[in-house]
Amino acid sequence: MSAPISHIIFDVDGLLLDTEKLYTQITQGIVSKYGKNFTWAIKSRQMGKKETEASKIIIDELELPLTVEEYLALAHKEQEVLFPKVDFMPGAEKLVRHLHKHNIPIAIATGSSQHLMELKTRNHKDFFSLFLHSVISTDDPEVKHGKPAPDIFLVCAKRFKENPSPEKVLVFEDAPNGVDAAHAAGMKCVWVPHEEQDRDTHNHKCSLVLDSLEHFVPEQFGLPPFNFL
């Protein structure tokens, strides 16, 4: 019998916040100036990675005449405008508030940077205060390697005061790189992939694959059920 879930780690982009379409919009706006197209095949490779790693994938794949620093300067200019307006993904707010209400330890593990997290969460401070801690891998010195390496989830689990063993941790992810990282960390994973993602590539590494967080049933993982009273 597998160990019961005691702690939960959430990714942010495309899982809790509807930022992935904004990333796509911003990226396409940049690469189109060079006659290039930002495809899903490229996006799926760079989702979940540290900001600098994700940018290098785009630059190399599309042969853009930009350094990582130049590319990020262009992207950040647009992000400053768009990210503070971002809203929740379906089911995200309900699930997180439910887990917090029942004293389930929850934390964040994202490939984002501190500055971008501040932009994205500016209008959702109350919601993000429910998490015990956040590992923001672009700026975290303990995270040596970004997703798909397991570093971010192992660091995040270690920072819970209980320091739970990996098999007791459940990870929620939307990106294939994140699923790989959770699997490599020895943790259970609920995958909520983008509609364009081929699910056959990673469903064997997950405990559950969902179309939306709205469809998550907590008691399937021994967690308190939603109370509709």
Automatic annotation (TrEMBL):
One of its GO terms (molecular function) is metal ion binding. Its EC number is 3.1.3.96. The keyword Metal-binding applies. Its cofactor is Mg(2+). It is an enzyme of class 3 (hydrolase). InterPro entries: HAD-like_sf, HAD-SF_hydro_IA, HAD_sf, PGP-like_dom2. It comes from the Eukaryota. The keyword Electron transport does not apply. Pfam families: Hydrolase (PF00702). Keywords: Hydrolase, Magnesium, Metal-binding. It catalyses: psi-UMP + H2O = pseudouridine + phosphate. Belongs to the HAD-like hydrolase superfamily. CbbY/CbbZ/Gph/YieH family. PANTHER family: 2-DEOXYGLUCOSE-6-PHOSPHATE PHOSPHATASE 2, PSEUDOURIDINE-5'-PHOSPHATASE. This is pseudouridine 5'-phosphatase. It comes from Mytilus coruscus (Sea mussel).
